[in-house]
Specification:
The protein is α/β, with parallel strands linked by helices. Helices cover 35% and strands 15% of the residues. Strands 8-7-9-10-12-11-19 form a seven-stranded mixed sheet, with helices on both faces. The protein has a five-stranded parallel sheet with strand order 1-2-3-5-4, sandwiched between helices. Helix 1 runs antiparallel to helix 10 and helix 6 crosses helix 14. The longest helix has 22 residues.
Length: 637
């Protein structure tokens, strides 16, 4: 039987911790933390949460329930809960928001009990969806044993479209191991939320989306909250077939009269001269009381995620000169990887017959998740599923990845291991027109601090680079083309992160001694579709007695710094040609790493006009990034 008196004492301790830590930090969000104290204290210490605090992450954590604070600004509450659990000291708690502390203003992966970073509102439920999907892949669907994912939502963030994307997909996949807790405290940062305390309207909306709903009219009544959790989590629960949300009416700033339900206090700590008054209202606080979090069922049978090293990936039989789109080779590689590595999962935004992830979907339907046209949710769900040890490949058109940029920006603070694939990049997609052309994607991924960008030009390089992504941890972006291009690499060709390929014509090879080029007029740097335009130009120029070197810049980030600088020391006329807008693309990347930029003549051929519908050839010519434009630029030197 739960000890409600002890829970009340723990709530007092947590309120004390929230107030004192934020006042000490001189910043933070105490009021939004105070409103959810009873909701989360009951979850943590009322016998519902099961987590081995000695193993919060990694292989030994798979039996744990997961907790995601989507309202990440309530981090003082998170840290106070773990203080009450006995794993954070009072001294550490007082380091909140300090430069050398893991207790940051919004939780990141540095905090060992947080799986994902939150703080950009509206993303936590998507992460929960991904985790719930991953758990079911590992454990199965038995609601009695499957670990749960709890997501604390704020009512303000429910204005975000991504929340409703996640709500829909959770219903689609019947994620009965996903329990959302909505802290309906009425007040946002600057004004009242759209629905205020209208729990009935919230209830109707969630039910319309296929969720089970439990309402708690007083979100500070421990017994009522306990009953709500018990309804969902008891073995006889009738809520076991759907995702569930607990809608709780709470008061922002609860526990301190001059904060309760008052505007103007969001993101403001209690000043030191008012702290004593605030703490006095709490009454006697037992600073030594601690709650207990239940340990999960460690005998739970979990699917073994492994790479079968005895099976080698067989590259599809691409013959030199054959025409094949890199997007199709990606699909071939994903299918091949899925056969030997059951960590591989795929997600797609209803584009699988264009990105060719459908090849994987048909063979491994249990490891394929159709996320429909909701790219933001797909990005964060991919991050969530990766936290269960899977390697997610998420694909759609490159143009639509910009929808998910904030989600990718946030993923970098969660030690991500996600692989993003953008097909139909650039004007070379042809007649579909500019709305479908990814022309900002390289810039977007380059701006993420620790991302890797790979841009294959043919089927062999696309296949092998996909394999490299699967074998290497991190946030990767693979840029693939719609247009078919000739196979130019042999199956034995090797590729690496930070590599490139130098293309010399036979007659030019005599001019190369120990990697030093002595005669060529220009160095042409390209990738993807424009590499083939560069190779065409190279042949035509050679026929006119003008020799050039072409560099396949298949690793855009990191670049092959050594090769580029070696070549540019010898060749002073440099052309970068790319199917991307000028800002943030390959041209800027190359210029940023050349050791002696003032000594070279640099020409950047890229998409400078607003594109339109047309054939791929017409559009490459219109944007002056085809072989004709390259020849003109070389002759200009």
């Amino acid at each position: 039987m739960v000890d409600f008196e002890k829970l009340k004492k723990i709530c007092k301790l947590i309120r004390y911790d929230i107030l004192t830590s934020t006042t000490e930090a001189k910043s933070g969000h105490p009021t939004t933390s105070l409103s959810a104290v009873e909701l989360m204290t009951t979850l943590f210490f009322g016998g519902f949460l099961k987590s081995d605090l000695n193993h919060p992450k990694g292989v030994q954590s798979f039996a744990n329930d997961r907790v995601v604070f989507s309202k990440g600004h309530a981090s003082p509450l998170i840290y106070s809960l773990y203080h009450a659990a006995g794993v954070i000291s009072q001294k550490e708690l007082m380091t909140l928001r300090k430069i050398d502390s893991d207790l940051e203003g919004h939780p990141t992966f540095r905090f060992k009990y947080a799986d994902v970073a939150t703080g950009s509102l509206g993303q936590g439920l998507s992460a929960g969806v991904g985790m719930a999907l991953g758990i079911k892949l590992l454990v199965g669907n038995d609601p009695r044993v499957v670990p749960k994912v709890f997501v604390l939502l704020g009512d303000s963030e429910m204005a975000e479209g991504q929340v409703w994307e996640a709500i829909q997909i959770a219903s689609q996949y019947k994620l009965n191991n996903l329990i959302a807790i909505a802290d309906i405290n009425r007040l946002g940062q600057s004004t009242e939320t759209m629905l205020g305390w209208d729990l009935e309207t919230y209830k109707k909306r969630f039910e319309a989306f296929g969720w089970s709903v439990i309402t708690v009219e007083d979100g500070h009544d421990l017994k009522k909250i306990y009953e709500a959790y018990n309804k969902v989590l008891s073995e006889k629960s009738s809520y076991s077939s759907k995702p569930t949300i607990i809608l709780a009416r709470t008061i922002k700033g609860k526990g301190v009269s001059f904060l309760e339900n008052k505007e103007g206090w969001h993101g403001k700590p209690v000043p030191k001269d008012l702290l004593e008054s605030a703490l006095k209202e709490l009454g006697d606080v037992n600073l030594n009381i601690r709650g207990v979090i239940n340990v999960p069922n460690l005998k739970l049978k979990i699917k073994n995620l492994k790479l079968n090293k005895n099976l080698k990936i067989k590259i599809k039989n691409y013959k030199l000169g054959d025409l094949a789109a890199t997007r199709m080779a990606y699909g071939d590689a994903l299918l091949a990887l899925g056969k030997i590595n059951n960590k591989i999962v795929a997600l797609d935004a209803e584009m699988s017959n264009s990105t060719y992830s459908e090849k994987f979907a048909k063979k491994f339907p249990e490891r394929y998740f159709e996320m429909f046209i909701a790219e933001q949710n797909m990005m964060t769900a991919a991050l969530g599923i990766s936290k269960l040890g899977f390697i997610p490949f998420a694909s759609t058109f490159a143009a639509f990845l910009t929808r998910g940029f904030d989600q990718l920006r946030m993923a970098q603070y969660s030690a991500p291991n996600i692989k993003i694939v953008g097909s139909h990049c650039g004007v070379s997609i042809g007649p579909d027109g500019p709305s479908q052309m990814g022309l900002e994607d390289i810039s977007m991924f380059r701006s993420i601090l620790n991302s890797t960008i790979l841009y294959p030009s043919d089927a062999v390089s696309a296949f092998k680079l996909t394999q490299i992504m699967a074998d290497t941890d991190g946030l990767f972006y693979l840029r693939t083309n719609r247009k078919e291009t000739p196979v130019i690499y042999d199956e034995k060709e090797k590729f690496k992160i930070g590599g490139s390929k130098i293309h010399l014509l036979a007659q030019a090879s005599k001019t190369v001694r120990r990697g030093r080029v002595t005669r060529p007029v220009a160095l042409i740097i390209a990738a993807g579709v424009t590499l083939h335009e560069a190779l065409k130009a190279q042949i035509e120029l050679a026929n006119k007695g003008i020799e050039t070197v072409v560099l396949d810049c298949y690793s855009v980030k990191p670049l092959d710094v050594q090769s580029i600088n070696q070549l540019t020391r010898e060749i002073k006329n440099i052309i970068v040609v790319e199917d991307h807008y000028p800002t943030g693309g390959i041209g800027e990347a190359v210029l940023s790493i050349i050791n002696h930029p003032s000594s070279i003549n640099f020409t950047h051929l890229c998409v400078r006009k607003l594109p339109r519908s047309g054939s791929p050839e017409e559009l490459l010519r219109y944007e002056e990034i085809d072989s004709e434009a390259i020849i003109k630029a070389v002759k200009g030197f």
